[in-house]
Amino acid sequence: MAERAHPRPKIYPPPEFPPRRPGRFDRVPPAVFPAILGVLGLGLALRRGLAAAGLPMALADLVLGAAAVIWAYAAFAYLAKMARRPSVIMDDLKVLPGRTGLATATIGAMALAAAVAPFSAGFGKGILLVALGLHLGVMVLTVLALRRLPPEARDVTPGWHLTFVGFIVGGLAAPVLGWTALAVGLVWAMAAVAVLIWGASLVQLIRRVPPAPLRPLLAIHLAPASFVATVGAMAGVPVLPEVALLLAVGICAALMLSVRWITQSGFSAMWAAFTFPLSAFAGALFALGWDLAGMVVLVAALGVIPAIAYRVITLWGSGKLAAVTNAAEA
After folding, report:
1. Do 29 and 322 contact (CB within 8 A), yes or no?
2. Between 7 and 124, the higher pLDDT residue
């Protein structure tokens, strides 16, 4: 009987020497964008706070200008990463930090439109239209990415607000640009989607306790209620803004009572989830005339948001943010 031939060993490529060094933008982490959105939101809230106090807008414009530069650099860096391998965006969307990061990237463009709108209606309209279109694209790609994941990885998370309700941020610029009807449509449509996500998240929270590292994401639940209140007030929608603000107050109170439990695992890039909801809440209080409460929240935001944003952006600069958030490499 003839002996069986042994299978040929696999051929592995020889090791590179010297080892290949990744390009400058090959592993840009989408997780940097939530913190940048927080700084943009702080600038918008500061603009409302200074107006309520009758003070000049110079400080708010300075914050918005600095945040716009950081956002533009981060967006350029991620586009450079995609230029090297366009499919890398689908790899980033496989993980939670990538999904929340890419959603806040396009939401940040909507916040930029709101920052620019008082100075240039034409420029503001252009940015807003592009931002809404890009966010729609990110939403579609996110749905495709979720469908390819196992069922246990498709659970509803607070980050779904960013992907599916994030369009509401476009409503901050729309009334200023003369597109009040767009703002009204966004308010009602996004409020309905947010209610569905809140309901599903509440059921999940009752059934099982989220792991400590993911608990900071619970703060995202504050953002949709705050934005609905602000945009609804700007667009002249009756009743809904007041209801949304009361809901935001309730969510904020629950978060404050649970802050030790939420932050149990210590600082991480997930803490960026505290930034933009806090600035959105301050803006909502000012938008509905709760100026004293708005000042209190704004002062807290001035202490919290820059500190978190600095640490997250520093992690990006050191290269650690990509590693801890599983950012894909081009």
Report:
1. yes
2. 124
